[in-house]
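re: that complex we talked abt at group meeting.

here r the seqs, copy pasted straight from the sheet so there may be weird spacing, ignore it
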Amino acid sequence: MIFTTYWYLVFTPVVVLLFWLLPRTSWRWWWLALGCVVFHAKFAGPAGMAPVLVLMVLTYAAGLSGRRWACLTVIGANVLALAFYKYTLFLIGTVVSPISPALGEWVGQGAEAIMPGLPPLGISFFAFEFVHYLIEVRRGGAPIRHPLKFLLFSVFFPSLVAGPIKRYHSFIASLENDTQRFQMENLSIGLRRIALGFAKKVLIADNLTVLIDHYQPMMASATLFERWMLVIAIGLRILFDFSGYTDIAIGTARLFGIKLPENFNWPYLARSVQDFWQRWHMSLSTWIRDYIYIPLGGSRLGPFRRVSNGLIAFGLCGLWHGPAWNFVVWGLYHGVGLAVCATYKQIPGIGPAIARILAKEPIVAWVLTQLFVFLGWIVFFYPVPEAWEMVKLLFRT
Amino acid sequence: MSASPPLAEPTRLDRFCIPIAVTVGFVVGLLLLAWAGRHVARTTWHHDFVRFHPMLAPDSHYQPTVAEMKAIVRAQCRPDQILVIIGGNSIFLGVGQPVERLWSKRLQELLGDQFAVVNLAFRGAQTTDGAAIVAESLRDEFPRQIYLTNTAPLMDAPPTGLEAYRFILLDAYYKGWLLPWPPRDERLKWELDSTEQREKALGLQIDAWLHQRTFWNWWSFTRFFTFPTPMSPDRQTAFRGRGQFPDREPDYEERTTAQRFSGPHVAHDLEIARLFTAASYRKDEAGQWHPIEVSHRTLSDNARAAFPDPVKKRTVIAISRNSPFYTQQMPPDIQERDEIGYAATLQMWRDAGYHAFEFGRDFTPDDYGDRTHLTSTGGVKLAAITAEEVRKVARSLGYLTFSE
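got the structure back, here u go
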């Protein structure tokens, strides 16, 4: 976790201090860009930076040209790069190997020989932000002409590792408007947000991790109450870990005056699966909505397409989290949840009755939603067979 | 243009807070914590300290700082006493001996009020780890001191110690408490040549200014520990203050000697004992043992580099022997090789400028809890031998007159 390193604690104050000491805004941007490149180089290394640099140059050039073929080609290049670095071995293992184990082994060895040990740092975020940029430019948005501004949009270090996934128009607007002069308010908000993030991450999430790692292998011998406590701990851990990290990212950006998108809005208060996705990892869910679900037809083409579009979008959303089946299952699980949420009212007789009960008793809606969400975390964190065993343990003494 | 997720706007709390007050408060808070870290180490919070049992050691994520250990020493040693700091590994820590029959307590009794014995040994530590750093850091404050440590025959002793206890070395190093010692400085540069190690070192460099580790140790010892430990994750003890954790070292003497030396571990330990000195000797065709030059030269060079020259003469190295339960089962040629190894180890340390002695030669299986650790009975014997050696060193250093 890059933000919880001492290096970050030294690096960030140095970059922020000099940033605001520089008298001209353009100098500040150059200095910030240098800091971002140093940060990226430190944690990604040259091998991790190279593919991102190539994608960045291609995306910048395609955006400037505004041509349809160029934008589509570079969108394809971004998607291919993401698939190559993140999913090649997964695809070989799940598609090629079941057909021909020998071929799978041969292709797998070949792929391992040409691929870096780990995917380039933040490749999922880079790819999504570049795709967003090119689609918006094709839809008529003004491209970023200034290469320095595009560089900053691409490698802005607070959001480089784990988001939030930025939108270029709001980022550039904030960069241009909010870095003109130092405001104590930004420093104050940024520091408090960083402190909150560290408290969530280090004090709560990391402690929960120790407890979860200790108790999870003993789940079968635990009492029913302890098993449910474990599931609650798993759900709280991911919230505090991820939202803590996001708080540090948003707070760090704010030290430079720059406003990043919010990612969380009390998701465990949601009273429906739809509500949950409007509160959880909002920068991802809106990206999925804008660039996968709506282009597929969204909810405009009847109930069947609405459900199938949701399943595709959330299957991909799950896969985006990592190259493993449990992520895909988790995404589809939420896709099904959203489909049920969106259509149950249309079931004759029982549908409207359920809707009335949930409207009258919001606590029931909240319990059902959170039960759904927390059970989903089990498959998010554990391989599907193991997760299934864990779920069964929750419903028997 | 698609609708973006909402940007991070000021919350109600943000609007309530006065920016300058929050920022100044943040800085002042940080400075206060740094001051608190310095302040709490002025006196020890380890009242009635005996040793770093597992719940007060890195074994359970508790990392004592040098300032904290210095405070322990100050609380236990008057300026008119000769300070004896015990370092080394689990043998000197007293694993297998309950607190009330710990060998270092017996050593204190034998040495009397002229000496103050402080046991700062850690499990698995080497001669140059932990307590060695504390002793060196206190060289001016307690000029009449003896550092007592143990090791196995032909055991390497790099000046930077083990990675597990490097935090103690770096703690003192970055606070400027150590003597300049080129072999250690050079090796440290080499040791820190990785991202992970540099990150740890950076943390300790920051700590030299902020003293946050001492503050959090005080907090977690006297209030509550902010991290559960892998050694006590039960609800009752997971987050309690470390000061409330009892010393639960097992008592080997609760089992008979026969019970201690039976079971599946015996064959494994026998093999370790058989190979104890194997890496450093080869046998010629006539059946004679000859030292492997490279191995001996490395060990000898490392012994010379282990401690800065000014502290060598007050450093006492004790070489431990395996339980006779194992050594007596060895064929004569292995026993012969071990004897050559012990003699060579003692000579090597002495040649490098240290005082060295061995213990365990005349011990019985009853004195051992396992292959290496001593029972309380063995601890009594160790204390007697050590007390004599400590007095010898104290006399040679002029701390005692030859009639004392």
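couple things i noticed - The two ends of chain B are 92 Å apart (CA to CA). Chain B has a mean pLDDT of 91.
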